[in-house]
Amino acid sequence: MKESGQYTVKQLSDLAGVSVRTLHYYDEIGLLKPSGVGQNTYRYYNDDSLFRLQQILFYREMGLELAQIKEILDAENFDRVSALQLHRQRLQEKIERLNTLIQTVDATIMHLVGEVNMTKKKIFEGFSEEKQKQYEEEATQMWGEGVRETAKLWNSYSEAKKQAILAEGGAIYSDIAANMDKGPESEEIQTLLIRWHDHLRNFYEPSIETLGGLGEMYHDHPDFNATFTAIHPALPGFLKTAIAHYVDMLETRWLERELGILEE
Hints:
- By secondary structure, this protein is an all-alpha fold.
- Among the domains are: 7-78, Multidrug-efflux Transporter Regulator, Chain: A, Domain 2 (Orthogonal Bundle); 90-156, no CATH class.
- The chain is 72% helix and 3% strand.
- It is built from 13 helices and three strands.
- The chain has helices at 9-16, 20-28, 47-61, 66-74, 80-112, 120-123, 129-143, 146-155, 159-178, 187-200, 208-220, 222-231, 235-263, and strands at 7-8, 36-37, 43-45.
- It has a three-stranded antiparallel beta sheet with strand order 1-3-2.
- A hairpin with a 5-residue loop joins strand 2 (36-37) and strand 3 (43-45).
- Helix 2 (20-28) packs parallel to helix 13 (235-263), helix 10 (187-200) packs across helix 13 (235-263) and helix 11 (208-220) packs across helix 12 (222-231).
- The two termini are 37 Å apart.
């Protein structure tokens, strides 16, 4: 591609919505090298760098590790257009699967946050043994065998433990709402989010990306927004901001650990 632009690290960070620290790390591991370094030692990126970063973010969205992404992008037969077509196909398949699952997922979330008008019949509406197996197979194809292990984990709990876990979920959101006056980045709220994070482990081990996605969905998804608004009108936006800060802190600590390993 003919070079038609030059971007500093800060400009590329703002353009792509990726932190400067992350871009520095990608440079360190050879995943996204700058197109040049100025006499002032500033990194500069061109349009090829921009489109490579786009591919990195697409593959990260698909759940690939950074080492896997580097191997794919550095392959001699890598074709950018074909890769974009594949991304589109995968995203469309994901949308279709999520549309199939969303109603039952919404009902479960509503129960977890203590929606008093939600009956147990409503929560499990649409599930049959046949449908459950179908959903499990589809989810496994999309997210891997971890989905099947999650179902096994939940089914291994006693009824008493299940009820205790569900009650704890509702209590966490109520406690967050009760402490909103402290601010989303306060020690009190961030400590409650550690509790929230740990609670999610009753179902699966959430990645940093999953945690961030939940924060977005709590505010942006109409059903989630309505559920949290019923607890407190300002709770959806508060959760989005608080979880974004929590995730940013997790990502910062992860990058610091990785950079520490590289420096050894």
